[in-house]
Structure prediction request, 306 residues.
Amino acid sequence: MLFPAFESRWLGADAQLGGNHWLKALRPGGVTALLLLEGPVRVEWSLRSHREISGNSLIWLNTAVALPESWRLLGGRQHEALALHFPIEWVHSSLTSLRQELSADFRGLLLGPHSATPLITRPLEAEDRVWSRTLMAPTLCTAARHLLEGSRMSEFFFRKVLTESKGEELFCTRTRRLSLERVAKVRAALLENLEEPPTLEELARLCGCNPQYLSRTFSEAAGTTISLYLRRLRIERAAEMLAHGRANASEAALEVGYRSLSHFSQAFRAEKGITPSEWVRRPGISAEANTNIGANANTNARQIPA
Prediction:
């Protein structure tokens, strides 16, 4: 296979639930890049060896050398991360001939000699956040999705481990950085009002460019159109509301800007592969969420037509 045993997995939980399920997500025998988007964590290797890492960090671990003994979610707030797993054989075969191109800490972490706590961190850049949201391709078949995600993961890996020193910014690098900054601005503006989002013209004024240029460069940088990106943000928000029992399907649809329940269901299936009702019935959803959903269904004052 072109990308053998590459894996990506979203992690998220309230701090009081603990971080054991995060620890279980770390596969042995490889290198894990964990994009810690929200919430601080404490990684413990022994009683006298630990690291506390703030949110908005990129954590690199060599699980072929040692796995942490415990992983705690700190801060009493929501946590969110994207874990990427790269098999150690692939890492070694890809980087051995490039050993001298690596920074000292990456060289030690990935190729050795290894420390007793094989972990390094980097600040999470704005473009990393944008990239994390465009990694998944749920509308593709399994084989095509694996190929596309593997390609994006390998590009991310090499971009991070081989470009420690930015030096003088090249024109193409600056162009991409500006495009990613525009994506971040569009994302923030859309999230502020999913129910009545800004128009393309309003977004273009916010980004300081014309609508056609914004539309084209956004698609190139984010890998999707602004309208599909808006759909993704809306469905992610609705899915979170449904999963935590904060709304039923009608309420969630209205909250994120859908006036037709059938249109909402079609968009939900396009993003998640299942209907809203199937999403609520997933194994593992809390009893509290099911109770809240039932209560919302009985007291809902905001109904929309099917």
